[in-house]
Amino acid sequence: MDKIQNSLSLCTDNNQRTWLAAACRAALAAGSLIRKRYEQPHTITMKGAIDLVTETDVASEAAITASLTEDTPGIPIMAEETATSHATVAERLWIVDPLDGTTNFAHGFPFFAVSIALLDRGTPVVGVVYAPLSDELFFAVSGCGARLNDRKISVTGTGRLIGALVATGFPYQVEATLPTVMRQMQAVLPRVRDIRRAGAAALDLAHVACGRLDGFYEMNLQPWDTAAGWLLVQEAGGMVSTFSGAPFSPFSSDILASNGILHPQLLPLVQ
Ligand code: IPD
Ligand code: CA
Ligand code: CA
After folding, report:
1. Residue 139: strand pairing partners
2. Closest ligand 1 atom, residue 112 Cα
3. pLDDT tens profile 132-160
């Protein structure tokens, strides 16, 4: 079945259906562009010592922006490669990561995604994460649950840390964050089954939502890394907070997402 049509059966509210269809259409278009460019040579520009941007990040962002603007004129867009500020706005706002996992993409490591979320006064309404190589469309609408392609998804029921597969990420600001990263690793690694660092935060969150991971934590993230995945995890029955246990917002820089059951066990380890 057509992925956009299929996604629409998730909810009955007309506005939500319009926004979900717009987010899915944009994510699928960008994903197709990314897939075609994956095995081509890339033009790489450095944003920092290890922080890359490729021509595909920029092209994907342009495609998403054009698609969202056509389908939902009037809703502003905050997208990674053109964002000028992180100021929240009172009304609706699209938050876009045109290519999450750029380092993986540039190296030919097959773990990256497009992430698109709609916030309404800071609350997530729609979240879409699309992994183009596996053709997996993760989507959620507030109050309506979460899906991966045509099936409903939910977080794991893992109750003990020693049985948990947890993911994390390492911020680009390596020097400044290394002591915290190492302290957290020292606390978490001996207590869980294993840790993964796959390299795309939005996809890590989607994997918590669909039960491939039991938890995920990372610091120094941006709104476009977390906004869509946050809703996916919540709608799949999981829990998302900051490292201190405060309610999460995509404007928080640190995130702990879990199946909910493990949250109280993971919190003291990442604090
Ligand atoms: C990055 C990825 C990575 C995470 C970084 C993010 P980008 O996003 O999500 O997994 O560790 O903190 O910035 O730069 O590939 O869009
Ligand atoms: Ca990102
Ligand atoms: Ca990106």
Report:
1. 128, 147
2. 15
3. 999 999 999 999 999 999 999 999 999 99
Distance of CA 101 to the CA centre of its chain: 10
Alpha carbon separation from 108 to 57, 61, 181, 195 (Å, rounded): 14, 20, 26, 22
pLDDT higher than 60, residue 90: no
The answer to whether 5-152 and 161-270 have equal CATH topology is no
Is residue 219 in contact with ligand 1, taking CB distance under 6 Å?
A: no
Pairing of strands 239-241, 255-258: antiparallel
Whether this prediction's pTM lies above 0.85 is answered by: yes
Per-domain residue ranges for the chain? 5-152, 161-270
- CB of 200 closer than 6 A to ligand 1? yes
Q: What average pLDDT does this structure show over 1-12?
A: 86
Q: What is the CATH number of domain 5-152?
A: 3.30.540.10
Q: Is 169 in the pocket of ligand 1 (CB under 6 A)?
A: yes
**For the domain 161-270, what is the CATH code?**
3.40.190.80
Give the tens place of pLDDT for each residue, 161-188.
999 999 999 998 899 999 999 999 999 9
Supply the residue whose CA is at minimum distance from atom 5 of ligand 1: 171
Instruction: Write the CA distances from 263 to 21, 145, 206, integer angstroms.
Output: 32, 20, 17
